[in-house]
Write a structure and sequence with these properties.
heterodimer, A: mainly alpha, B: alpha+beta, seven-stranded mixed β-sheet, 27 strands, elongated
Amino acid sequence: MNIVFLLIPLGMMLLVIAVAALFWAVNSGQYDDLEDAGRSVIDRED
Amino acid sequence: MERVAAPVSFLAHASWSADGISHAVFTIEGLRCAACSRAVTRAVSALPGVERISVNVATARACVDWYPQRIVLKQILDTVTATGFKPVPLGGETGASIQRAEHRLALKRIGLAGLGMMQTMMFVYCIYASGAHGIDPGIAQYLKLAGLLIATPVLVYSGAPFFAGALRNLRQRALGMDVPVALALTIAYTASVINTLRGAGEIYFDSVTMFIFFLLAGRFVEMTVRQRSLSATEALARSLPATVARIGADGTAQRVAPDLIRQGDLLSIPKGGVIPVDSRLIEGEALVDESLLTGESTSMAKRPGQPLLGGSINAGHPIRVIAMTRTTESMLASIVSLLERTQAGRASITRTADRIASRFVLLTVGLATIAGVLWLFMEPTRALPAALAVLVVTCPCALSLATPAAIAAATARLARRGLLVTRADALERLARVDVVVVDKTGTLTRGVPAVELKSIEGRYSRDEVLQIAAALEGASEHPIALAFRMHSNPALTADELKEFPGRGVAGRVEGTQWRLGTHAFVSELTGGHNDSAEASVFLATSTGIVATFTVADGLRPDAAHAVDELRRMGLQVAIASGDQQKVVDSVARQLGVEDAVGRLTPQQKLALIQQRQSGGTNVLMIGDGINDGPVLAAASVSCAMAQGSAVAQAAADLLLLSESLNTLPDAIRTARHMRAVIRQNLTWALVYNLAAVPLAAMGWIAPWVAAIGMSASSLLVVLNAARLARASGKTT
């Protein structure tokens, strides 16, 4: 069972990485506009 | 983002006038309600040396005048900060970028809470699941510590808005919805920390993280829905540019705040830029989009000299315009000030709702305490979960959101169609209307005479006769002449013009002698009798009558459809006009309206409306908004047709900015729909709370289920209201 003592910190590190990745994505503006990019495909102009 | 802006950057938009008063404009972050703006205004105007401050909620901008000898700008900004809001210099921080920053922060908070929630659930589940078989106490303690490690940042970072809101509530001595939330979070977290440290008892880290996640997610959806249903006019007020390029005498452009624009200033408007004030195009062709003002969706071409409405958007090439007014006097400013009035009214509705919610919160805390104490005597282990569940499950939000959310959504929908609601309770009154009284001129008709060609004889085309007639009327100032001149062609002019008052005009166009006027008048030239009962104006040469016209105040093309629609909805339609009975009858016949009275003085119109209302009916009065103020004010609800700068004078509850009368039946339908939605929302809020609270008190609802229930309930209310903003029923 001692493996639990290692795996839990590992899982938490994964959590930290996931949170960091999400914060990076949000801060770099990837979630600012979720609609226009999709709409641009059917937009006739440019 | 947290950097405190140096006052220097504020001075970029400050100016000094001759009388020694400084003037600056800046944005206030976090300003959301009329109450907030009042708080800022009160605090700042109390400062010695401040001449005046005006805070606009719609634009989140403050405009302050002060005496630099007596106070420095920094003190003013510090005072604003002390009221709990952040002053931001104009420029980069427009409403949009503030909104984007809020959006990003909200996403990060939700993201952290969501990830943290999953992780803590996993740990806590291990403890629960192994409960029967017995888990190694060392491992259990290890898992609890891990849960504590994750729940803490979630509580501090993601849960911050609830604590901030609760603190603000307590400071204002009001009980808001954040108070029970913050209380529940504090109790659950503290109990869990104590139990973890002493190594015994239940922990609620999973409930804490889940509660934060679901509440945040619910609020995020609410925020998105609310932003979507922001009325176009509110969006417009926010889109007013922070600075405008003013072209100086030396031809160089200088960026100035819109408040500093004076009549006669030359402005350069880029493609896609908002025209800040009512102005006149000076050169080139322009394409402007007035959809935010009037709901008119197609862009309109403007020629040099033509007026452009403040608030319209330059959809074509960059243009140069001359300002005709100051920003405070333009149509946009009138609309914004009307909006403020609406928001103030809306605030009073919200305040009432908040008062109810505040009592409700008190009740909730009381019930939670009672439930906790009772359980303590029966089964102490269940006391805390039951008390938490009661705190969490009750949903004052649904109660206090029910009405404002529906009003906001309905107002937004109508604004998109060019109908501005200027009083918050106008829609509720509109829903009860059963008689529609229309003043004919300027409403059912356009209000300006228009020429209609009845017949042409001979070899002339339609355009030719209209242009000849326009040339003949070229010098006259008679209203009929103005109607003809709409069709003028600059290349075609008349000479030897002679006007015969009451009869017509005579003149020469391209060598031919013409007459335009009454039948008797042109017959002197033709010598013949060519009777045409329908027409009123005749155009003739010596060889005979060439064309016949009628000049009348024409019906709007959609008047008949709109009246039909109103009748189909079960409303009585009546016409009350000051015009001649004959003309009123003719219009009434065309529209199929039986109840039509002409030759009314404003006093008689007023009496007519009051008489109908004394019979218990609710009257919607539609007028042109300029001459019929008292009549409009007397009606249960009033609607004015408002174009251009007339908006400012119109004192009606509703302003029809669009040209289309079909908006009216749609407005009444939306108002009725809104009333139904408000009833549904209030019923739901009542039923939900009455059902959920006893269940929670009896301990049948786990705290985390309660969190989901509460978020879902308030979401349901907001989404139900959002249906109003969406197009329902086809109206074109």
